[in-house]
Each structure stands twice: as structure tokens, then as C-alpha cells.
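If you are new to this repository, start here. Below is one unmodified record pulled from the training split, so you can see the exact layout before writing a loader.
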Amino acid sequence: MRGTVLFPSLLAVGLALGSASAQAANALPGRELRATDLPGYAPSAIETMHTPASWSAFVSRPLATIRADRFVVGVRESLRRLGGPGEGLSLVVKFGSPTAARHEVALYRTQYPAMASFAVATIPGAYGFADGGGEDIAFSFGRYQYLVGAGWPQGDSRHASENQLVRAAATLYARAEKGAHS
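And here is the target side for that same chain:
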């Protein structure tokens, strides 16, 4: 989520979607990060989006793509950084099929081609990407697509490490794999 990799566009849209409908109760409880999963970050808000149009605007993807992947519901968990500037993000989206969820992960590669990528060996098919002020990891499990990220001001050395972010994403993946949520 470097420099808030996804944050510039997603944060702006997330703020714009801060309506009552976007802030409805979490439609996918247990699928987002838990307070202890990413050291130095704490949950601060949950937004649920129920329409393809709201999710399309949030992730800056064509509505036709979101509809083709049969969007069901998306949840954005905002994380605040403890003891310093920066923010985190946990997204989970339910699509119509496992193929659609994998497709959505693959789209991050084309949506952010200038970002440096990094390996996430502990999660099959995961894609890690970064710039100078943040890192994100996108992956899927079944019909669900996940994204975990952390962003900070450029030059701030007190941020979550890539290893911490990988561990947080791997923890979330392990919970999904063990059937912690149906």
C-alpha cells in the first residue's frame, strides 16, 4: 500500500461513499483482518457496498467488469495506524464464482502496472505490489477476493514491514482455508 498504493483512489472514493448505505453493517463478518493480525494497526471503520456500481466506483474498475464477475457484496475495513501517520485497509468481496474472484486478483496486475511486485509464497495465486509509501496483497479463496494493505508517508521508516503484511494476509488466508467462515 505504499504511498497508499490503492489509497489515493480508494480512500477518496471510500470517503465519498461514506453514506448510510455504504456504512451498513458488515455483510461478511469474520472475513476482514482482526485487531491483532497487523501489528501497529487497529480497525477504525467498516463499510459495506451492496451494488456493482458502488464497488466499481470504489475500486476504479469498469462497471461491466464488476457485473461480469457477478459482484455480490464488498466490505472495506479501514485501519488506523497506531502511534504515527498512515493507514491500513482490508477488503473482502464476494463474487459469483471462484474464477471471478481470481480474475479480480489478476486485474490488480494490469490496473497498477508501474508498481513493484513482490512474492507472497505462502498464499497460492497472491499478488503483492508496492510503491514508495505502501504495500498491498491481493488474493482469492473460493468466491472471495481479498486485499490487505498498509500505507504511510514516504520516507517513514516506522511502518508495517512487508513481512508483517504477508503474515497478516497469510493469517486471513488460513482462516478462510480452515473454513473459519462459511
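Two things worth knowing about this chain: The CA atoms of residues 69 and 124 lie 20 Å apart. The longest helix spans residues 162-177.
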